[in-house]
Write a sequence for this structure.
C-alpha cells in the first residue's frame, strides 16, 4: 500500500498530513516556519523530518512503508533551491519518492487542476501565481520582505510599527497602534522595539502577527490602521492585475 505525506510550509507555520492511497487521512501535524530563504535549508529540512517522524508515529507506521512525500514550500520557487532541498531530505528521510515545489504551485493546482486560473497568497509574505489554458506559468510578487511582500502580514505589521514610531515622533497622527504594539512586545515605549527588531529577537513572524492588532484597530476606526489595511488591499489587487496582464487573462473569466 502507498502512503502519501503532504507538507505545506510557510514563513510562519507548516502543516503536514499523512493519508493512504484511498484518501483516508491517518494523521495531521503542525510545525514551525519552513521558508528556506528566511530560516535556511537545514532548519527547513529538520522541520520537515520532525513532521514526517511525528506523522508516521501517529499513524502507527513502523518504517519501510511505501511513502511518497511532497512538500510545497514558501521560498522554493527556484529549481536550484528545490534540488538542494530534495537532496538533503533524501539523506534524512526514508521515502520512496520525495518532491518539492513552491507552495504557490501546490495551491494553484489544488484550486485549478486543469485550465486557466490564478491564486493569491497573502500570509507572512505575498505572491500571485497563475497559469493559462496552455499550462504556461506566471507570477507576480513573492520577492521576499526586503524587495516585496506587499499586502502581506509582514507588510501590515511593519507598516504598523512605522505608524507607531511616526506617531511617537510627532510626524504622524495619533494612533492606538503605538500602545497596542507596546503591549504586544511588553515594551514601556515604542522606541524600545528597535534593538530587538534589528537583532532578530523579534522575528518576521512576530511582525506579521501584528496584522491581527492592525485589523482590530481598524475595526475600531483607527485612521492609521485603516490606511494600512487599504494600502495592503490595493497592493494585493496590483499583484492580481499584473499577473492577469502577463498571462493575457485580462479579458477572460478565470
Amino acid at each position: 500500500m502507498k502512503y502519501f505525506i503532504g507538507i505545506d510550509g510557510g514563513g510562519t507555520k507548516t502543516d503536514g498530513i499523512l493519508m493512504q492511497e484511498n484518501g483516508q487521512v491517518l494523521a495531521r501535524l503542525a510545525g514551525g516556519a519552513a521558508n528556506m530563504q528566511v530560516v535556511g535549508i537545514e532548519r527547513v529540512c529538520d522541520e520537515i523530518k520532525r513532521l514526517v517522524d511525528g506523522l508516521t508515529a501517529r499513524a502507527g507506521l513502523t518504517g519501510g512503508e511505501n511513502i511518497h512525500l511532497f512538500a510545497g514550500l514558501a521560498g522554493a520557487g527556484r529549481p536550484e533551491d528545490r534540488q538542494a532541498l530534495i537532496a538533503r531530505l533524501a539523506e534524512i528521510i526514508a521515502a520512496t519518492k520525495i518532491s518539492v515545489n513552491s507552495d504557490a504551485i501546490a495551491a494553484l493546482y489544488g484550486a485549478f487542476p486543469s485550465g486557466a486560473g490564478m491564486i493569491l497568497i497573502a500570509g507572512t509574505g505575498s505572491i500571485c501565481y497563475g497559469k493559462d489554458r496552455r499550462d504556461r506559468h506566471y507570477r507576480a510578487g513573492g520577492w521576499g520582505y526586503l524587495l516585496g511582500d506587499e499586502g502581506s502580514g509582514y507588510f501590515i505589521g511593519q507598516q504598523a510599527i512605522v505608524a507607531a514610531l511616526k506617531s511617537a515622533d510627532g510626524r504622524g497622527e495619533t494612533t492606538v497602534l503605538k500602545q497596542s504594539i507596546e503591549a504586544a512586545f511588553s515594551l514601556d515605549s515604542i522606541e524600545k522595539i528597535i534593538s530587538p527588531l534589528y537583532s532578530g529577537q523579534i522575528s518576521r513572524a512576530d511582525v506579521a502577527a501584528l496584522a491581527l492588532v492592525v485589523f482590530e484597530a481598524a475595526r475600531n476606526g483607527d485612521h492609521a490602521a485603516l490606511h494600512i489595511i487599504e494600502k495592503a488591499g490595493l497592493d494585493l489587487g496590483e499583484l492580481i492585475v499584473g499577473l492577469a496582464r502577463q498571462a493575457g487573462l485580462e479579458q477572460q473569466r478565470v
Notes: The chain is about 45% helix and 20% strand. The domain at 114-254 is CATH 3.30.420.40 (Nucleotidyltransferase; domain 5).
